[in-house]
Amino acid sequence: MSSIPLTLNLIEGSVSLSFSPQAARELKAATDQLMERLKAVAAKSTPGGGGKVTPQPPLEYRYTGEVFLEIFCNPNIWPTPFAAKVLLTIRNVNIRLTTEAELTRIIEDINNYLEQVR
Q1: Any idea of the CA torsion for 114, 15, 70, 63, to the nearest 10 degrees?
Q2: Neighbours of 54 (CB within 10 A)
Q3: Separation of alpha carbons 104 and 92, rounded Å
Q4: CA distances from 67 to 16, 18, 20, 33, 93 (A)
Q5: Which residues are CB-neighbours of 77 under 8 A, at least 6 positions away?
């Protein structure tokens, strides 16, 4: 387990949690896939984008370590990847935090964490 915490910047404030580099790489892969789904939805919904939008599966990421982290995002409801927000739940025995966060900010936070643990 890395001694460097993952800090996620929220719309107001931030939260830091114990997180492993391997879990961060898995979360990065999941958010990369989500960005591709969001781009597919945005391309189909623009004029000249070509017809009916195929519904894309949501991101449902879960991590269990010292704390439980869940990230959910439905790519079908956001007009662009840059407008997308995720529902973030962090909990352990003593506390539960559920809030929204900007997807682009979460991706940036994950990339910053991975740079630190290399």
Answers
A1: 50
A2: 10
A3: 26
A4: 11, 7, 11, 24, 8
A5: none
Reported for 31-34, long-range contacts at CB under 8 A and 24+ positions apart, including other chains, are 31/59, 31/61, 31/103, 31/106, 31/107, 31/110, 33/59, 34/59, 34/73, 34/75, 34/84, 34/103
Q: Which two tokens stand for residue 18?
A: 């114990």
Residue owning tokens 């960005």? 35
Question: How many alpha carbons fall within 13 Å on the CB side of residue 36?
Answer: 7
Extract the tokens encoding 118: 């290399």
The one-letter amino acid code at 112 reads: N
pTM here? 0.88
What does the pLDDT look like over 72-101, one tens digit per residue? 999 999 999 999 999 999 999 999 999 999
Copy the structure tokens of residue 95. 């506390």
